[in-house]
Design a protein that fits this description.
alpha+beta, three-stranded mixed β-sheet, 8 helices, two-stranded antiparallel sheet, about 50% helix, elongated, about 160 residues, single chain
């Protein structure tokens, strides 16, 4: 399931800084030019559950943006409270301890490329590039999930 589809099911909206009305130009420049490497995505939590907003960094690749959304969704599913907040371009960027980041990364990668999807891809004779393209995942993530799931060992077949 694509990240946007999961976000919609969870009643989360996905936007970029360009979509924020009345954002001062200097904040926009900080987010997408000068500070673009300091953040990936921001989860802005609403007072009502499941009305949250994910602001995604538009300067990232499509695969990275997909992964960013899964990562932010994972922080919410894990019920992580931030350990710190840094303001970048007027947005409160939540910072987490390494343990919470690892949890969100692990769950995010699993949501992005579940084992069942890899079985399906192998059954349909997809190679790693096909998997990357089909699931909007980086080649590094595809390699990582193939190794983490042990799918090649289970199927006794290498995925080229």
């Amino acid at each position: 399931m694509p990240a946007a589809q999961l976000a919609k099911k969870l009643k989360m909206s996905i936007r970029t800084p360009h979509d924020i009305t009345d954002i001062p130009e200097e904040h926009l420049q900080e987010l997408i030019v000068h500070g673009k490497n300091r953040w990936s995505a921001v989860l802005l939590k609403a007072e009502q559950p499941h009305n949250h907003l994910i602001i995604n960094n538009p300067t990232h690749s499509e695969q990275r943006k997909e992964s960013n959304v899964f990562h932010e969704i994972s922080h919410e599913l894990c019920e992580h409270d931030p350990d710190d907040v840094e303001i970048i371009g007027g947005l409160p960027v939540r910072r987490y301890c390494p343990e919470k980041e690892l949890q969100a990364e692990t769950l995010g990668f699993t949501l992005h490329l579940p084992k069942d999807c890899l079985f399906w891809a192998a059954k349909n004779q997809m190679n790693r590039t096909d998997i990357s393209d089909y699931f909007c995942a980086s080649s590094e993530l595809v390699r990582f999930r193939i190794n983490a799931t042990g799918i090649e060992r289970i199927l006794k077949k290498r995925i080229p």
